[in-house]
Amino acid sequence: MWVITLVCEELRQLFVIRAPSARNAVAIYFKSYWNKLDVVAIILFFVGKKRKLLDEPDLDEERVQSLQENILNRIRRLENHMRLISNQQAIMCDYLEHLMDDSKTNNDKRIKLPERHLLDPE
């Protein structure tokens, strides 16, 4: 609705200009920076409207996800990250255990180290 008002106002400004010819009136009208800006805004509005009407709808039903699906996907990703961290932690603990085994036999003496307790992630 505002565009129709803007178009009417710009036409009113154009017809109010006192000039010997219509060509001179248009030239006088376009001397103002704001009039140029108004015309560009009107043109862009109608170009955008035409493009929106001609294009397919922007809503792609295949890509729309419900809130529950979105939450479930995030939980799955979090579970995958937790498994990855757990695996990396297990690898690091095995490596440290091998280092401790090597250090147990320092100078041909067995050193008593506490046993490692594994937690079941499930």
Structure description:
There is one protein chain. With 122 residues, this protein is mostly helical. The chain folds into 2 domains: 2-54, no CATH class; 67-104. It contains 4 helices and no strands. It has helices spanning 2-16, 22-29, 33-54, 67-104.
- Please indicate the percent range of residues in DSSP E strands (runs of 2 or more): under 5%
Our Rg estimate from Cα atoms comes to: 37 Å
What is the general shape?
Answer: rod-shaped
What is the element string, with H for helices and E for strands?
HHHH
Task: Supply the number of helical segments.
Answer: 4
* Residues in helices, as a percent range: 55-70%
Spans of at least 5 consecutive residues with low confidence: none
- The total beta strand count reads 0
Give average pLDDT, whole number: 80
Number of domains: 2
Structural class: mainly alpha
Distance between the termini: 61 Å
The biggest sheet, with number of strands, parallel, antiparallel or mixed sense and barrel status, is:
none
Quick summary:
This protein is mainly α and 122 residues long.
Provide the descriptors you would attach to this structure in a database record:
122 residues, rod-shaped, 68% helix, mainly alpha
Question: How do the helices and strands line up, and which of them pair or pack?
Answer:
Blueprint: H1 2-16, H2 22-29, H3 33-54, H4 67-104
